[in-house]
Design goal:
Low-confidence stretches: none
Bound molecules: 6-O-phosphono-beta-D-fructofuranose
Number of helices: 11
Number of strands: 11
CATH topology of the largest domain: Rossmann fold
Largest sheet: 7 strands, mixed
Helix content: 40-55%
Structural class: alpha/beta
CATH architecture of the largest domain: 3-Layer(aba) Sandwich
Number of domains: 2
Length: 323
C-alpha cells in the first residue's frame, strides 16, 4: 500500500506557496506515495475538501503567486471538535501525515494536531518573517522586492515635487518588511511595532533632510507601528504650518502578497517541500521546516508557536546610520 500524505496552505497567502505545494506533491510521488491536496486550509480539512493530486495538478504553478489550494481563516478549527473532525476525515482516506504551509496561526493549529497525536510537519511561510525557527520564511523576499519597487517609484515623484512621503507596508507585530525595505530603499526614517517612535524626532529628521539639500523625504511605516500611515499623516497634518512640509501617504497592503515569487522564494519553497517529505519519511513529526544560516532546519513546533520573532537590533542601528 503506498504511503498517503496531505498538504494544505493556511493563513495569509505568500508568494512561493504554490512552489512548495508543487515540491511536496512531486517529491511525495517520486517516493511512490499518494499526495492529497486540502482546499481552503483547515476549513477544507474539516469539510472534507481533500483531493488526490497528480504531478499534472501542480504543473505550471511554480511561477504563480498565491495558492492553488486556497487558504482561509478558520474559527471552527479552534475547537477540539473541529480538530477531531479534521483528523477523522484524513483517517478515513488513509492519510498518514499532514504538511501545513503557513505562518504563526497556521503552525499553532498544526501543533494542536501534533498534540492530539496526529503526524504533522510545518513549512515556514509568511511574508512577515516573524516565525521563530527560521531565518527566512516563504514570501518574504518577493514581498520585500515589491515594497522596494514602490519605494523607488515614490522617491521619483517625491523628488519632482520636493515632497515627503509615507509608505506603509505589511507587518502587524513584526517590522521586518519595513526595516529591510527601508534599509534597501534608503528611507529617511522607519517606524516599527517593536520600537516606539517620537513623531517630533521624525519631523526633525525630515527637516534636516531638506536642510541638507535632499529633494524629498521618505518614511517607511509598518502597519503595526504605533505611528503607521494614518497616525503619522494625522500628526504631520496637524503641525504642517510649523513644520513647513506636508505629507502624502501610500498604503501598499495586500499588493505585497500578490506577487509572482522571485527566484529565491521558488528555490526556497522547492527545498522546503523536499525537506518536509524527507522529514515525514524519517517520522520526525511535530517540527517546522525552515532555514538557519543557509541550512535546512527542523524546529519543534513546541518551540515555535505563540512566539513572534524579533528584528535584528544591529540592522536597526545600521539603518539609522545610513538614513
Ligand atoms: O501575516 C501576513 C499578513 O499579510 C500580515 O502582514 C497582515 O497584517 C495580515 O496577513 C493581513 O491578514 P488578512 O489577509 O487576513 O487581512
Amino acid at each position: 500500500m503506498p504511503k498517503k500524505i496531505a498538504v494544505l496552505t493556511s493563513g495569509g497567502d505568500a508568494p512561493g506557496m504554490n512552489a512548495a505545494i508543487r515540491s511536496v506533491v512531486r517529491c511525495g510521488i517520486a517516493k511512490g506515495w499518494e499526495v492529497f491536496g486540502v482546499k481552503n486550509g483547515y476549513q477544507g480539512l474539516i469539510n472534507g475538501q481533500i483531493e488526490l493530486m497528480t504531478t499534472r495538478h501542480v504543473g505550471g504553478i511554480l511561477q504563480r503567486g498565491g495558492t492553488i489550494l486556497g487558504s482561509a481563516r478558520c474559527a471552527e478549527f479552534e475547537t477540539v471538535e473541529g480538530r477531531k473532525k479534521a483528523i477523522r476525515n484524513m483517517n478515513q482516506l488513509g492519510i498518514e501525515a499532514l504538511v501545513v504551509i503557513g505562518g504563526n496561526g497556521s503552525q499553532s493549529g498544526n501543533f494542536a494536531l501534533h498534540q492530539m497525536g496526529y503526524p504533522v510537519v510545518g513549512i515556514a511561510s509568511t511574508i512577515d518573517n516573524d516565525l521563530v525557527g527560521s531565518d527566512i520564511t516563504l514570501g518574504v523576499d518577493t514581498a520585500l522586492n515589491i515594497a522596494l519597487e514602490a519605494i523607488d517609484r515614490l522617491k521619483v515623484t517625491a523628488s519632482s515635487h520636493q515632497r515627503a512621503f509615507i509608505l506603509e507596508v505589511m507587518g502587524r507585530k513584526c517590522g521586518y518588511i519595513a526595516l529591510m525595505s527601508g534599509l534597501a530603499g534608503g528611507a529617511e526614517a522607519i517606524t516599527l511595532p517593536e520600537i516606539e517612535t517620537d513623531p517630533e524626532e521624525l519631523a526633525e529628521t525630515i527637516q534636516q533632510a531638506y536642510e541638507h539639500g535632499k529633494s524629498h523625504a521618505l518614511i517607511v511605516a509598518a502597519e503595526g507601528a504605533t505611528y503607521n500611515a494614518a497616525k503619522l499623516t494625522e500628526y504631520f497634518d496637524k503641525h504642517k504650518e510649523r513644520l513647513g512640509f506636508s505629507m502624502r501617504s501610500t498604503i501598499l497592503g495586500h499588493v505585497q502578497r500578490g506577487g509572482a515569487p522571485g527566484a529565491y522564494d521558488r528555490i526556497l519553497a522547492s527545498q522546503f517541500g523536499w525537506a518536509a517529505v524527507e522529514t515525514i519519511e524519517q517520522k520526525n513529526y511535530g517540527v517546522l521546516v525552515g532555514q538557519k544560516g543557509n541550512v535546512i532546519t527542523h524546529t519543534p513546533l513546541a518551540d515555535v508557536v505563540g512566539k513572534t520573532k524579533g528584528i535584528d537590533p544591529e540592522v536597526v542601528r545600521l539603518a539609522r546610520i545610513l538614513d
